TrEMBL record:
Protein name: ZIP family metal transporter
Membrane spanning stretches: 26-43, 55-73, 93-111, 123-143, 155-177, 184-202, 214-231
Keyword tags: Membrane, Transmembrane, Transmembrane helix
Topology term for the membrane: Multi-pass membrane protein
Gene Ontology cellular-component annotations: membrane
Coiled coil: none
Chief place where the protein resides: membrane
Compartment(s) of residence: Membrane
Species in which this protein is naturally found: Chryseobacterium antibioticum
Amino acid sequence: MTVVLLILSVITGVFLGKHFGKKEKLAKNLLVLSAGFLITICLNEVFPQVYTSEVGSSLGIFVIAGVLLQMILEALTKGFEHGHFHHHSENNILPMALMVGLFIHAFIEGIPLANEKEQLSPYLLGIVFHNLPISFILGAFLFNRKNESKNSHYPSILIVALFALASPMGMLLGNYFNPNLQPYFLAIVGGIFLHISSVIIFESNKNHNIDWVKIGLVILGVSLALIMHLFHHHPPAGHSH
């Protein structure tokens, strides 16, 4: 079930991006909606698990490591994760670099899934919700390029397949780690989530005007995550997976 959801979220996003990819405003709106959802999952689900674990007080450095790791990965992806996608400069992004950056990003996110006890955990849904707009942009970029001859060695379908399989592969590797390491991996992913979602939400608006649509989408994303939080069973404080 987990693997199916992860793969379907990527395939669905790529499919939508291929057919509606020219609607850049739609991609931006999906990103903002997912950012509101993701930052709420991060603060209400991921960080409480991290800081109520037995080693919680020493995990702040791993959160910072996640933030720094995502900043490094963005040197490869050129900010795909938070919508820095412009048709006029798309040839500046090498498919190999994009493939490596997105794979590492999704692979690391998949590792903590190995110790998630629920099939539809908030953490999993956060990844799925996050995958959709990224995959939308990926599909728009890969399948609507005007000039693909220079990049023929790296077929688009390979990039999509690797991105779709990255989180399941991370989850598979996570089965071989000691479950006591779960808070460390969650802390790193929490830093990644925090960086991506905050950049999307707090990026300066044009002329610094209030963007009511953006605010509304963030509130909607937050509300969806809070509703899910209310109906989700939470272990007692101090319990670690």
